[in-house]
Design goal:
The protein has 14 helices and 10 strands. The relative contact order is 0.07.
């Protein structure tokens, strides 16, 4: 899955922050408690030995979840999507991305990377048993068809079994599960409509969530309280997440209908490129008290962003006649955006957060407006479900 909230930092891998919410520690202790009894039954020995195996097994399982999420994160990075971090929580793990995939192909690759890593973990667990000439013991342990076995084989078998369960669950074609994201990517590619694909996959997700809740209730009636409560909680979580996906799809559809031209300031104050540093200081920065201005050429083409401190340095350094075209920020293209781009695309631009605004340009690169964070904020408020009576 993908989407960071406050969590406790556990470490950093590949420059990606790994954290855990307090709820994860409850699940960890629950796993250790359950597995202590399990290993006592199938391995035997002292209570301390069973407890030690339970701790190792629980940590290996959560390590495999981190690897699963790292699969998403690494592939997301390769597709130009930033990673905020990975969090472990009550229901598993989440790789928080800075934005959604822009193409069906990228969506499918990112979603499929996690299950692929889980499949590798399963293969590695069974393969380790094969290298020791005991693959049968590992498989028997994984299928819970053995009453007693060695500690290593019980550990590998349980790790293979729990990851196989994780793999099967994640491949269900229902949002927010990875299988649902893969199904959405396929539907998106076939229909060309991401919002429509999201709605379809999210509705399947809601249906699947109700089945999980029903299974949990059935287990409760049968007297298996622990498993029943767990499935009910998982079903509720999946249902809420699927509902969130539906709301996000509706929100994105509204954003897609709003362009930069709809929200920008059509008559921004700009500085001609031939203006001297002294004139820019006197006529613009001291007059308007703004931290920066857009610089334009004689034909109206955007030349870059000019900050007040660079003008002050030029004047104080004995270069008052220096044209502002030589003082603009490097790489001016990062501060520009097409006037016809959607508001959703605008939100994905890092320079919007850095500068607080972006320069809107036409097809020839001429500056036609400036869009600020405040204008974006007002547009977002107008696009929220609450403001549409939803």
């Amino acid at each position: 899955m993908s989407g960071t909230t406050g969590s406790i930092k556990l470490g950093t891998i590949f420059g990606i922050r790994i954290g855990a919410t307090p709820s994860w520690f409850l699940v960890l202790f629950g796993f250790i408690y359950f597995l202590t009894g399990y290993f006592q039954d199938v391995v035997g020995g002292s209570d301390a030995r069973a407890f030690g195996l339970a701790v190792v097994a629980s940590l290996l399982f959560f390590a495999s979840i981190v690897l699963h999420e790292l699969g998403h994160a690494v592939v997301a990075r390769r597709n130009g999507i930033g990673i905020v971090g990975i969090d472990l929580f009550f229901f598993g793990g989440l790789a928080h991305t800075s934005r959604e995939a822009e193409t069906p192909g990228a969506e499918f690759r990112v979603a499929g990377a996690g299950p692929a890593v889980t499949a590798i973990v399963i293969g590695a667990s069974i393969g380790a048993g094969a290298l020791a000439s005991h693959s049968g013991d590992v498989i028997d342990s994984a299928t819970f068809s053995v009453t007693t076995t060695g500690a290593a084989y019980a550990l590998l078998g349980w790790l293979a079994a729990i990851n196989a369960s994780l793999l099967v669950l994640n491949l269900v074609p229902a949002l927010p599960l990875d299988g649902g994201r893969m199904a959405r990517a396929i539907a998106w590619r076939l229909t060309g409509d991401r919002a429509r694909a999201t709605r379809a996959a999210a509705r399947v997700g809601q249906g699947f969530a109700y089945l999980v809740i029903a299974a949990g209730v059935w287990l409760l009636v049968r007297g298996d309280a622990a498993s029943g409560i767990w499935l009910v909680l998982v079903g509720i979580f999946l249902s809420q997440a699927a509902r969130g996906e539906l709301q996000a799809a509706s929100f994105s559809q509204r954003l897609a209908a709003v362009t930069v031209a709809d929200v920008m300031d059509h008559e921004p104050v700009t500085i001609p490129a031939a203006t001297t540093a002294l004139a820019a200081q006197d006529e613009y920065f001291l007059r308007y008290r703004w931290p920066w201005f857009a610089v334009v050429a004689d034909d109206g083409r955007f030349r870059g962003v000019l900050r007040g401190e660079r003008v002050d340095l030029a004047v104080a350094g004995g270069q008052p006649a220096l044209p502002v075209s030589e003082l603009v920020e490097d790489a001016p293209e990062r501060f520009r955006i097409g006037r016809d781009r959607s508001l959703e695309a605008l939100l994905a631009e890092p320079a919007l957060r850095e500068l607080g605004a972006l320069m809107a340009v036409d097809g020839d690169g001429r500056l036609v407006g400036v869009v600020t964070i405040e204008q974006v904020r007002r547009a977002l408020v107008g696009a929220t479900p609450a403001s549409h009576g939803a």
